[in-house]
Amino acid sequence: MTIRPTFVRTFVASLLLLGSGSLLCAAQLPPAKAAIASAHPLATAAGMEVLRQGGNAFDAAVAVSAALAVVEPSGSGLTGGGLFLLHRAADGRDVIIDAREVAPLAATRDMYLDKDGNPIRGASTNTALAAGISGEPAGLAALQSRYGRLPLATSLAPAIKLARDGFDMYPRLNAGLKQKAAQFAKTEDGLKTFYGKDGLPVPVGTRLKQPLLARTLQTLANEGMQSFYTGTVAKQMLAGMRQLGGIWTEADLAAYKTLEREPIVGSYRGVKLISAPPPSSGGIALVEALNVLSGYDLQQVDSVTRKHLIIEAERRVHRDRAIYLGDPAFTNVPVKLLLDPAYAAGLRTSIRMDRATPSNTLADAPEAAAAGTNTTHFSILDQDGNRVAGTITLNAGFGTGLLVPGTGLLLNNQMDDFSIKPGVPNIYGLIGASANAIEPGKRMLSSVTPTFVEGPRGYMIVGSPGGSLITGMVLLATLDWIDGKSAEQIVAAPRIHHQYQPDVLAYEAAALSDADVAALEKLGHKLRRQETWGNLQVVTYDSATGEVHAASDPRGVGTAGLY
């Protein structure tokens, strides 16, 4: 029997993986520097300020999250939620803080359907009824109290200053506010905060101050994040929601709790993957896709075949997402099955090397809308080796676009992430079934994929916004890291995406040559070129040298910094 060199390398790497716990080398050098990559320079600076004051990665995560709520309101805010993947260096613990929103207690299965059972246009996206009970304040409280070193007020101070003293309006935010002007016009606070007397957004380069948001952040700093649920801020939120026609109650806010969950863990060719569990589909989809791809040598096949195989893997995991995934407290998610390499081997049997698999031959599903590009992500590493991959969101850009009166807080529209009717796509084109149906107190399914990738060369902290596009971006980033690419190359690499329905391959212009397009179309793939998407934030660590690199996606306005 001839043993191939690639097999030997994979086998040795696997032994290293199995024998090392969460860190892959017995004697790793400490990181040479701390690093932060986020979607806005001022958010990165806020995290750096906290590190300089003696904070750790978890304190910095609070500072970055709060700052993003001020300077990047299109992507996240305190009424939203998210998942924070943590690695604590002292004991090697990996854990997820689940700060996902939940459905209000008054929510009902068909609350967004008319008397004929058809979706009511805009009800799950543009009204106060679209808002789930916020998880981010509780998530930040958990980060600070359980894992941080500094007082909450210290970590919130940079965001308070940014809201109070303002920052310069930038083109990306200005353009987003123009698109959402009709929604912002529904609240007086929204118009006063972001728009001039002419009805246009504050001009680019003009100082944007948010005094109401500054006051709310200061209250949270003084009273603690619990104020959002049972204190001063809670009273303001409930009063404001009544004005907007929402259904939140005191019981909803008082009952909200973050959860600590075990991450999804998998392996691929000697590399360990640590990612988000349900109620996110991200970790399962990432590991399942790599399990499918493990049956092929992607480094040996030609470029078109490699893309074809990635597409077919994505197609199948998004089908499983639509059928099986939801809040594990409400539905029996078959995690063990979906992560089983034998299950992936079964999926591979339906993949043909010479032909695309029509999605409707896997299961019937309606055509769906294009995917969205919002949410935000940051990656943090401190010099002790603590790590955070945090993905937080309001769902659509600016959420509902409604400012809760008197608070300066934008209201999320996360209820649209439920399956409002089986087979009906949400704003990201994702479909679902009963596993993700609306139920009171239930967490809606997410696609966020905060991830650690660990291998003999070190590790990567990675994640991105992008709705249904997120997991595919993290999949491509993982393959690029395994192939030896740098943080800068990973965030800049052009992207392709398939999500089962619609049965179309989306691609950035630079991702496919004319020859690639022709070859993939010959295989039967339907292609659609899209504008660039995503905002990948990456930090990498080299275990041999201790060298740290950080990179922010050039598609966005963010920066990466080292300290």
Describe this structure in words.
It is globular and about 60 Å long. It is α+β, with helices and mostly antiparallel strands. The longest helix is centred in the middle third of the chain and has 22 residues, at 303-324. The protein has one domain (1-166, 209-563). It has helices at 5-18, 41-52, 57-71, 136-147, 152-165, 171-179, 181-184, 188-194, 211-223, 227-230, 232-244, 250-255, 282-293, 303-324, 335-339, 341-348, 470-482, 487-492, 514-522, and strands at 35-38, 81-88, 93-99, 167-168, 207-208, 259-261, 264-268, 271-275, 376-381, 387-393, 403-404, 409-410, 451-455, 458-463, 496-497, 505-508, 527-530, 537-542, 548-552, 559-562. It is built from 19 helices and 20 strands. Strand 11 (403-404) and strand 12 (409-410) form a beta hairpin. 35% of the residues lie in helices and 16% in strands. Helix 3 (57-71) runs antiparallel to helix 4 (136-147), helix 5 packs antiparallel against helix 9 (211-223) and helix 13 packs across helix 17. A 7-stranded antiparallel beta sheet has the order 6-3-2-10-9-1-20, with helices on one face. A 6-stranded antiparallel beta sheet has the order 7-8-13-14-18-19, sandwiched between helices.
Shape: globular
Distance between the termini: 52 Å
What structural category do the secondary elements indicate?
alpha+beta
* Total helical elements: 19
